[in-house]
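User: I need a structural model of NAD(P)H-nitrite reductase large subunit from Pectinatus brassicae for a docking pre-check later this week. Nothing fancy, just the predicted structure tokens so I can convert them on my end. Input:
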Amino acid sequence: MEDEALRQKVLDKMTRVCLCKVINRATMKKAIANGADTVEKVKKATGAGSGPCHGRRCTPKIEELLKQSQQK
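Assistant: Understood. Predicted structure tokens for NAD(P)H-nitrite reductase large subunit:
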């Protein structure tokens, strides 16, 4: 189980959610854990969605992370 948690942490740091601003999943999860409970709040806390695509690529991924956090 400990190995899986470590594996997940490494994957979170390596997985880019916002490609334009190079923001990883770990940063998104941290913002959510710190109270960002909407897509807009996550974007404001991380800077996601402010790149050339204006959130077209990262918004669905942020929505999924929020959904996952609410299921826990």
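Before docking, keep this in mind: The chain has one domain: 2-71.
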